[in-house]
């Protein structure tokens, strides 16, 4: 069994350079690779293109990289919770490519599966389709979207083993699985790292073949983006 484990996040990020393209899993602040993002901030790597559904918030997640102007371009779907993102985008400091959420997921999945491109009906007839090839299938128009090309994919899982097999928990099973294997190198940080053969094969969401490096994460904050509660009902 090939061991994919590395001793810490610093070793896991070996080889990162300026001007690279990174995929980062997560949905809002759920299931984001917190340890990896913190290390990227410390590394001071710059000129990054980041592919992620969200851009974090001002003081957490990808918002930390935005604060230090380490991101050159964001490829995202929903970015409405980050004031600094909005400021940089409107001022022209940040290049932004907004993509329909399903298209974002499928472009990741296409890269994961080795497909060069997909056809999707999302965005046809809108600005999203401008300058792109379109084609009719069974009377319906579709837009050609190319698979992403990324240097690293950074994902976060609940549990993983030394061979890189991963289990995601709850909503964290969002963009993380489709980003595994969708880049040249996939790095997984996990809340619990166990010996190979420990996980029930029927519970594994992503097999280790899609993961090159895995490490035990620590000190997860798991912030809630917007906490809302109902008013107490009178009895």
Describe the model:
This protein has helices at residues 9-12, 34-43, 63-67, 83-91, 101-113, 176-179; strands at 21-24, 48-51, 71-76, 95-98, 117-120, 134-137, 140-146, 150-161, 166-167, 183-194, 213-216. The protein is α/β, with parallel strands linked by helices and 235 residues long. The chain is globular, with a radius of gyration of 18 Å. The termini are far apart.
Structure described in brief:
This protein has six helices and eleven strands. The chain has 235 residues and is α/β, with parallel strands linked by helices.
Topology:
Blueprint (H helix, E strand, L loop, with lengths): L8 H4 L8 E4 L9 H10 L4 E4 L11 H5 L3 E6 L6 H9 L3 E4 L2 H13 L3 E4 L13 E4 L2 E7 L3 E12 L4 E2 L8 H4 L3 E12 L18 E4 L19
Parallel strand pairs: 1-2, 1-8, 2-3, 3-4, 8-10, 10-11
Antiparallel strand pairs: 5-7, 6-7, 8-9
Helical/strand content category: alpha/beta
Report the span from N to C terminus: 60 Å
Share of helix among residues?
Answer: 10-25%
> What coarse outline follows from CA principal-axis ratios?
globular
Helix-strand pattern, N to C? Answer: HEHEHEHEHEEEEEHEE
Query: What proportion strand?
Result: 25-35%
Low-confidence stretches: none
Total helical elements: 6
Main sheet attributes: strand count, strand direction, barrel closure: 8 strands, mixed
Round the mean pLDDT to the nearest integer and report it: 94
Report the strand count: 11
Q: Any idea what the radius of gyration is?
A: 18 Å
Provide key terms for this protein.
single chain, three-stranded antiparallel sheet, alpha/beta, 19% helix, eight-stranded mixed sheet, 11 strands, globular, 6 helices, 235 residues
